[in-house]
Each structure stands twice: as C-alpha cells, then as structure tokens.
Amino acid sequence: MRKSLVSLLSIVTTAFALVSCGTVSSSSTGTSSSTGTSSSTSSWSGTLIISGAGVDQDFWLGRADAWKEANPQYSNVTFSFSAIGDDVVDSTVADWTSSTSPDVFGFASDKIQPLYSAGALAEVPDDYASWMEENMSAGAYSSAEFAGSVLAYPWTPSNGYYLYYDKTKLSANDVSSWESLEAAAEAAGEKIGYPVQSTPFYSVGVLSSFGAGWDVTYDDDGNISNIEATFDTEEGFLGGKAVQEIMTSSAWVDTQQAPTEDNGYIATVNGPWALSANSDGTASAYDSDDIGIATLPTITVTGSDGNEQSANLKSFLGTKLLGVNRAKNSGDTAKLTAAHSLAYYMVNEDSEKARFDYDQSAPAITSLLDDSEISSNKSVAAISAQADHSIVQAALPANIWTAPATFTAAIADGTVSTDQQIKDALETMNETLESVD
Q1: How would you classify the pairing of strands 104-108 and 315-324?
Q2: What is the DSSP letter of 306?
Q3: 175: CB partners within 8 A, 6+ apart
Q4: Considering the chain, what is the average pLDDT of its residues?
Q5: Taking the CB of residue 419, how many other CB atoms lie within 10 A of it?
C-alpha cells in the first residue's frame, strides 16, 4: 500500500530550507549531464507538442530552442504549444493517444495519480532519474515518484502562496494576524483579496489551519483504495470558523487584485507566479518596491468550548513537474527518447536559473540555493517560511477540489451561519471527500 500524505518535515527541510547544501555533483553516469545534452547518437525529426500555462509559452518554447542548439541531432525538430494549465491538464486532455495531445506537458504534483491512471506518464530513464536524485532536493524528487517509479521531471518546489501587502500602508505587525490586517484595511477603507470562495486551492488551506486533513491510501497499481478525512472533528470546525471569519469580513473580497494604490486593495493572497511579467512584456503590478511579502497571518476563532484558539493560516505547498506522454508515443522509441531529452533539459541547472530569472520560482536543484540572488529573494524566502504552515500537495483525490465548494457557497449566501450549521455542513463535506469513485 502507498500513502500519499508525505511527511511535511521531509519536504520542508530538504526542499525549501535555504541553507548551504555543500558541493553537489553536476553530472551523472550514462547519457545525462547538468546541461541536459545527450551523448546518444539517436535522432528524430518531427513536431513535439509542449503544453503549459499560456503565460509560459514564450519561456518554454525558448528553452525548447535552447535544447535544439545543445543537441544538434535534434536540429530538425519543430515545436507547437498548447495552453493548458498545470492544474487542469489531467481533465483537459480527453484522449492521451490523440495526435493533438501534448508530448511534453506541465502539471502540478497532485495530478500525478490521475495522469498515471490515464497512462499519460512515461517512466523517466534511469540515468536522468539518477541525476535528479543526486542534484535535486529530496522533496522535489519524491514528488516525481509514484507506484514505485520515477514518472516526471520536477522544475520548482514552490507551488504555494503567501501574503502580498502594500508596505506604504501596512507594517510587519499589521500583517502578522488576520485581526490586525482586517482592522488596518477597514481603517484605510481598502480591501483584502483572498479567493477562498471561488478557489479550493485557498479554501482548503484555511479549512486545514487547525489540523484537520485527510489521508489517502493507494493500491499497488496506483488506484485510490481508501480516503480518511477529519473535517468533521473539532479541528475541522475551527477551520470552518476561520473560513466564516474571513468571508464575512467587510474588508474581504474574493479576488487576487494586486495591492496597489490605484485599485483599493491593501493586501492579497497569491503565489510567486503573480510576479511574472504580463503577456505584453510589461512588469506585473505585483513586482513593485512598494509591495512586501509575508507568510499568511494567524487567525483566532472561538471553539465549541467557548475558548479562543489561534493558528497560522495554511497554504498548499507543491511541486510543478514536466511529464512525457507515454500513451501517445510508446510505439515510437526515437520520438519518446527525444521527448525525454527535452523534458530533462527543461529542468537542468541553466533552465531552472532561467526560470527563476523569469518569475522567481524557487529551483528544485539544491546547488542553486547557494546562489545569493536566489537565497535572498523575498519570494523564495516567503515560500520557505510558509512551508512550516503548509499542506504537502502530494497525490490527492480529485474531489479535494470540489468538496469545499458547497460549504463556501453556503457561507457566502448566509445559509450556513450558526456553529451547528457549520458542523453539519462540514460533516457533509467530509463524507463527500471520503467517497472513492
């Protein structure tokens, strides 16, 4: 049996601790190297379809062109790009054998189980896997493992979020608790953006802040065999109260508008991707000297016993990876080899440094954390600090993203407002979450 709930400590201490990692070998045996070039004489010509977030199209195609230059045996390969979000690729691609399905695709770490079940993930060649194990953080590397195999190429262990705030109006103390942040926003007549109603990626974090959660068990074939959730406990009730506290605040808005002078937002919860340049090449509104970054604040709620309890608001913390489509290409060894070579190149040291320069994504390669520019970066530092208050985004059941929707909708329209109504709604949510399709 295989558990999905990986120890948070192992992820935090190995994937995000910004400490010296010592000297790390930059090469491995076989055909792989730190530059992603291959000593193989195999060649292939044709078109490789790459998929990822639309805003990343230029970046990924740029790295693909660099791969061609580094691997002249693939000089005749061409590329096309499909804009498919890392968080929805498993549900967007209906037929992984189709000629229009992606050959190399980005995905979030919680999607590894459904992608595996769909036959979409080709096993990483041993030499590439060995290099990743030697050079990447243990947390990032383990996110690529499922059903006893290495199935993907990690490129960032920073799929999490934290608080952006207007430094001209808020102090570090103002953003240390929800209560002080809310009071400061109300005093300034401004808003706090936090999409807990519309996006379970954020609401599940709040619901888990006091210790409620889930445990998923898989069989030897990678199929879900059992789910145990604890949102029907006192810990879950406290998380539900936290959702209510946030969503009923006059300062709260379900949005991710940047906290700038022009739009009336004083703080917003978002991730490192918010720092990426706009599609027209202009700087993101988040990329401003007036905007600070902090961990999510604490929040205080009243429990069933009438006593107040406080906890840090939690976030998810996951890895983003690249997969190679097995279902489409298993019958074409040369093409599959080319796709693996491309994916491997896209997570090498040069590519991960380029990615950091592009959108400040924390690298998976440990030696890059010795780079002072990276280790001192405020986004990387915030992800590292938030890791202590995060949920590991390992392989998750798909209904973790749908089960909270009814609860947050009921909080929004007021049909759930009393403590007993919160408990009843969370019990229903818990039953939904535990269902195994």
Answers
A1: antiparallel
A2: S
A3: 163, 165, 181, 267, 292, 294, 297
A4: 89
A5: 14
Report the side by side order of strands in the sheet with 191-193: 252-253, 191-193, 265-270, 162-166, 291-294
Burial class from Cβ neighbours inside 10 Å (0-12, 13-18, 19+) for residue 350 reads middle
Q: Looking at residue 398, what is its pLDDT?
A: 64
What does residue 9 show for φ and ψ, rounded to 5 degrees? -60, -40
Enumerate the H helices of 3-137 as residue ranges. 8-11, 57-70, 89-92, 112-117, 126-135
3-state secondary structure of 154: strand
The per-residue pLDDT for 116 is: 94
pLDDT tens digits along 321-364: 999 999 999 999 999 999 999 999 999 999 999 999 998 899 99
Distance of CA 414 to the CA centre of its chain: 31
DSSP secondary structure string for all residues of 219-258: -TTS-EEEEEE-TTSHHHHHHHHHHHHHHT-TTEES----
3-class DSSP state of 431: helix
The one-letter code for the residue type at 287 is D
Which stretch of DSSP H or E encloses residue 321?
Answer: strand 315-324
Q: What is the pTM of this model?
A: 0.79
CB 130 within 8 A of CB 309: no
Q: How much is the pLDDT for 218?
A: 86
What confidence score (pLDDT) does residue 254 get?
98
